[in-house]
Amino acid sequence: MPFLHRRARLTAETRAFFTRHGFLEVETPYAVLAPGEEVHLAAFATTRIGTDGATEPLWLHTSPEFAMKKLLVAGAGKIFQLARVWRNGEGSALHAHEFTMLEWYAPDMSLPGLMDQTETFLRAVLPPVVTCRGITNALASFDRLTVADAFTRFAGADVLATANDADALARSAGAELRPNETWEDLFFRLLLERVEPRLGRDHPTFLTHWPAAQAALARRDPADPRVAERFELFVCGMELANAFVELTDAAEQRARFTEDRVRRHALYGPDWKLDEEFLAALAFGMPSSAGIAMGFDRLAMIASGATRIGQVLWLPPAED
User: Whole-structure pTM over 0.85, yes or no?
Assistant: First the structure.
């Protein structure tokens, strides 16, 4: 109960913060025609039955991102949502198949501006020093590190010079390439084994400017099109948030979705239809914006000092 009382207070403080900063709280549908386009996220399927008995396949969303961007196109301005989201096949001390996502979007926001805002939010709802899962972070300062610099520092590899060349990345990192391992596979193996364990150890760390292929919904950096304007935030050694300066080009977004769908269907089989309404909204015109998705349950863990996600869920899964 102490963990849950702290979560309840965190929820109230979060709503107060965003209301105070001029954000509008929104609610979007959970059962949708297209739950997302990530290659490796599995969704929950359901069926809508109409009053005439007709049926239509729906999916529980993996993020409210598409819906919230449609609201940006409609002129909603600065918006936030505490949304329940579902990701099938997930479960661990840090993962639940059903969890809460805090997402917010701000028109005309830059990537550095969003990092500044994220720091301000965390300092508003957390104490100056937090400890979670044995790792202590001071929130007085936040580190900002590009993916390229992190791979050079912690993996000895040049990810940009070796882009899409798995053999070259393996040689650069001094790693043995596994059978059928792609560049993307090796990139994530090095990220998980060598880079992420070094992030968010003393201070929270923003890992920024990801290779463009690893940011399907983010805008390419105008100064270096090899990378996208994306960051992930690590606090107490945990990934807490994922953020983009949003891609607003409908043609480029369609091309990226098509590529991701080919890869996903090759691995897992056919699934949902493309969200044409979302692409039409982009074509109509979405304002330049930045947005962030933060794992609210993990934030509650950090706030309360919980060691596993089930401690901050009101009714955790039976297997927790």
Answer: yes
